[in-house]
Design goal:
globular, oxidoreductase activity, acting on paired donors, with incorporation or reduction of molecular oxygen, mainly beta, four-stranded antiparallel beta sheet, Rieske Iron-sulfur Protein, Cytochrome bc1 complex Rieske iron-sulfur subunit, 1 helix
């Protein structure tokens, strides 16, 4: 328009960044099915019978966002299955490898360590115990 200054490069870039672009599949990047980020447990979570995780085994509890593994000596470890990259719930366990379907991050379900980026931070370890024959994961501190 005559008499009106052209927008600066910074103004154009800010506007572009703030404008949603159709067709980018943003829903695929959303943390949860309802758009809310899944949370770590905020209260102790009863995951099931003590016998549900055998020695040397790993089990995913998607409803609790927890994975539990039992070492050969019988000790338990639990980790939150909320991906540390973008907060997506991890719903896939392949042997002892957790795979986040949002962006492909992979974690060792026994240690919480990152096996494949884009995540760079390990999963959050949760206190876990057996109470009255039930596996119970508690919120992390």
């Amino acid at each position: 328009m005559p008499g009106r200054p052209a927008p600066s490069r910074r103004t154009v870039l800010r506007s572009a960044a703030a404008t949603p672009v159709a067709g980018l599949g943003l829903a695929a990047c959303s943390p949860g099915d309802d758009g809310a980020a899944p949370a770590r447990p905020t209260a102790p979570v009863d995951l099931g019978a003590d016998g549900d995780v055998a020695k040397g085994a790993t089990k995913l509890f998607p409803d609790g966002n927890v994975v539990v593994s039992r070492a050969a000596d019988g000790s338990l470890k639990a980790f939150s299955t909320v991906c540390t990259h973008a907060g997506c719930p991890i719903r896939k366990l392949e042997g002892t490898k957790l795979v986040c379907n949002c962006h492909g991050s992979e974690f060792d379900a026994r240690t919480g360590e990152v096996l494949h980026a884009p995540a760079t931070v390990p999963l959050v370890e949760l206190p876990v115990s057996v109470e009255q024959g039930r596996i119970v994961a508690s919120p992390g501190t």
